[in-house]
TrEMBL record:
Family, per entry: Belongs to the class-II pyridoxal-phosphate-dependent aminotransferase family. Histidinol-phosphate aminotransferase subfamily.
Gene this chain is encoded by: hisC
Listed cofactors: pyridoxal 5'-phosphate
Location of the Aminotransferase class I/classII large domain: 37-364
One of the GO biological process terms: L-histidine biosynthetic process
The protein's annotated pathway: Amino-acid biosynthesis; L-histidine biosynthesis; L-histidine from 5-phospho-alpha-D-ribose 1-diphosphate: step 7/9
Protein name per Swiss-Prot or TrEMBL: Histidinol-phosphate aminotransferase
Naturally occurring in which organism (per UniProt): Muiribacterium halophilum
Molecular function GO labels: histidinol-phosphate transaminase activity; pyridoxal phosphate binding
Subunit note: Homodimer.
Residues annotated with N6-(pyridoxal phosphate)lysine modification: 232
Enzyme Commission code(s) on record: 2.6.1.9
Keywords attached to this entry: Amino-acid biosynthesis, Aminotransferase, Histidine biosynthesis, Pyridoxal phosphate, Transferase
NCBIfam families reported for this sequence: hisC (TIGR01141)
Length: 377
């Protein structure tokens, strides 16, 4: 058998795709550290789980497992259209918004065209650009992790095809304001697609957050695609449902590249049911508001710098090696996310949990940081 170095079957570009290193699962950490109690605050999932009515909707859908799902997710799109006040033709549903990023890349991105993306931001934009043999231009966020709109506009040239804006951004939790996005749209060249990823939009409290659907409606001459998901506030990450909103010619092209039966019957039924429970969204928002206050206060009391967040996660600067903090938290049964991938070496990202989980996380974090301070004396 040929060794790894001799293996030449693949496209060269595949080697450039950074290996995705998923965090350890609760089961892995329990086994490795012989712990009975492990909490995961790493992937920005909804700590309250899925809405209650989703369970029954899933059970009901089980009668139809032998039938292919509706390829266009029509019933779900009709419900979304009603809720969002758009037409069904303005919507497409994907297996997570992640799949829609791939569809958009397949449908519109030519080889050697340029993709502008903020840095740090969601790494999947880069992966998809690489697969399409397009170039990626990273535009650094400012020191306070806010968007640098001038730098984004300066990055546009004749090769630009996509501009990704993640608002709120992952891993920072910060938004792009209405005025900032309008400045980009005003200067958006005809052949450029603006992709606004709003995976965490339902958590936002800031009044300056734009009403992107209204902006899309009132700018029919601009190529804007909004990405949304059921993975975060709706608590359905495990079922993989996301959607895009855009003008009809764009949605029609996405349908052409879409895998025929991309969203399974169970997931379509669950997402439909989740829309019937607005209380779950409100309850989650209220919990996040309360817990953010608690976490901020404790971080401030302990002189830990953090990025104010409009999401269900917080990026914080531990002031020491973030990987070490990550490992030591894991040893104590708490899984968070280190930020090595973004070269934010002293940072970790924590998902906001319930009070008990947040307290456990912060107690352990401060213990680790205090020990380190003593070691350094
Ligand atoms: C900014 C952002 N966009 C998109 C996604 C993908 O979400 P989905 O589960 O809908 O594929 C994530 C997931 O973490 C995300 O953080």
């Amino acid at each position: 058998m040929a060794n790894k170095e001799d293996f030449k079957l693949h496209r060269k570009v595949v080697e450039q795709i950074p290996e995705y290193i998923p965090g350890k699962s609760i089961a892995d950490v329990k086994k490795e550290y012989k712990l009975s109690d492990v909490i995961k605050l790493a992937s920005n999932e909804n700590i309250l789980g899925a809405p209650k009515n989703v369970r029954q909707a899933i059970i009901d859908s089980l009668d139809n497992l032998h039938i292919y799902p509706d390829p266009a997710s029509t019933t779900l799109r009709e419900k979304l259209a009603q809720k969002l006040d758009v037409e069904v033709g303005n919507l497409i549903v994907g297996s997570g918004s992640d799949e829609i990023i791939t569809m958009i890349s397949h449908a519109f991105l030519h080889r050697n065209e340029e993709v502008i993306m903020p840095w740090p931001s969601f790494i999947r934009y880069l992966h998809n650009a690489l697969i399409m043999e397009a170039e990626t231009k990273f535009v650094n966020l400012r020191k306070d992790f806010k968007y640098d709109v001038d730098a984004i506009l300066s990055a546009i040239n004749y090769k630009t095809k996509f501009i990704y804006i993640t608002s709120p951004n992952n891993p920072t939790g910060r938004i792009m304001t209405h005025d900032e996005i309008m400045l980009i749209i005003k200067n958006l060249p005809d052949g450029v697609v603006l992709i606004v990823d709003e995976a965490y939009r339902e958590f936002v409290e800031d009044d300056e957050f734009p009403d992107m659907i209204n902006i899309v409606k009132t700018h029919p001459d601009k190529n804007i695609i909004l990405l949304r998901t059921f993975s975060k506030i709706y608590g359905l990450a495990g079922l993989r449902v996301g959607y895009a909103i855009s003008r009809k010619p764009i949605i029609n092209m996405l349908f052409r590249v879409k895998a025929p039966f991309n969203v399974n019957i169970v997931s379509q039924a669950a997402a439909y049911a989740a829309l019937d429970d607005p209380d779950h969204v409100e309850k989650t928002r209220a919990l996040m508001r309360k817990e953010k206050k608690y976490i901020y206060k404790r971080l401030l009391d302990n002189n830990i710098n953090f990025v104010p967040s409009e999401t269900n996660f917080i990026l914080l600067d531990t002031g020491m090696d973030g990987e070490e903090v990550f490992n030591r938290l894991q040893e104590s049964g708490i899984i968070v996310r280190d930020m090595r991938m973004y070269k934010l070496d002293t940072y970790i990202r924590i998902t906001i949990g319930n009070r008990e989980q947040n307290k456990k996380l912060l107690d352990n974090l401060f213990k680790i940081l205090n020990q380190k301070t003593k070691e350094n004396y």
